[in-house]
Structures are given as structure tokens and as C-alpha cells.
Design brief:
This protein is mainly alpha-helical. It has helices spanning 5-25, 48-75, 86-89, 92-127, 137-163; strands at 31-36, 42-47. The chain contains five helices and two strands. α1 runs parallel beside α4, α2 (48-75) runs antiparallel to α4 (92-127) and α4 runs antiparallel to α5 (137-163). The longest helix has 36 residues, at 92-127.
Amino acid sequence: MKLRFSTIAFLLLLVVLAAFVWRTSQTLPPIVASHFAASGAANGFMPRGAYTALVVFLVVGAPLLLALVPAAAAGKGAKGLNIPNCEYWLAPERRKATTAFIRAGGQWFAAAVALFLTYVHWLVVRANELRPPVLSTAGIVSALVVFFLALAAWLTVLFRRFRRRA
């Protein structure tokens, strides 16, 4: 099985982000403020080891799942994909390009999710430096705005790509 450059880059990104989460988690207190109210005040706590394991699992596991599902669906052809003009886009002369586009799109979206989750972790690390711990509401709101703008851009590209016929 030959890995594409984009797949290697995606996997490398996940390794780097997991290492970042693990390394920055070492600076957390033994009991981590891990859940916060809308005001930013801490209202849930957990042991550092459990927090670190959970966040590493989320930063790696969720994006892997998000990248693998579109790739698996693309590999199944018309049965696995729900795209407009499916017969047209999966015709033999366009099938390879279509499945490559879907796989790449899944990886880009998964990378955006991994980066978002890692940034949220960083906000939690910063919140735990304060006494009492307080999560930056401006930080989380700006992260959500950026994430949803990236999601809207990704969906726009996806819908435009499959709306038209080449």
C-alpha cells in the first residue's frame, strides 16, 4: 500500500499535535480543571493522567475517524457516497479524481478538527495557570468562529465541486 504525501503529512501532523498535548499536559496540576461554565469558571475536574489520555485520544482518534470514513466511503463507490450526480462523478473516467478529492477533503477537515481540539487544550492549559482556573471565553469564541468559517469554506468547496459537471 503506497501512502500519498497528503496522508503522510496528515499522520505527521497528528503525531506532532499528540506530542504537543502530552508535553504541555506535564505542566498541569495533579487535578486539572477540565470543564468550564459559559462564564469561563471551572466546574469540572479530573486527574492529570486521565485528562492527558482523553485529550490525546480526542486529538488523534477523532481526526483519524473523520479522515477514514470519507476514504472508506469513497472506496465503496456509489454505495458509500451520497454526492449529487453520483453516477456522473463516479463514472470510470472521473472515479479516480473524485475519490482522491473526497479523501483529501476528509483529511483537510480532520486536520482542522485536530488543530481546533489542540487549541482548546492549550486554552485549558492556560486556564489552569490561573487561580482559580478560568477559561478564556474570548479565546474559545474566536476559535469557534475560525473553525466554523473553515467548515463553511470546506463545505462550499465540496458543494461547488459536485454541483457542476465538468
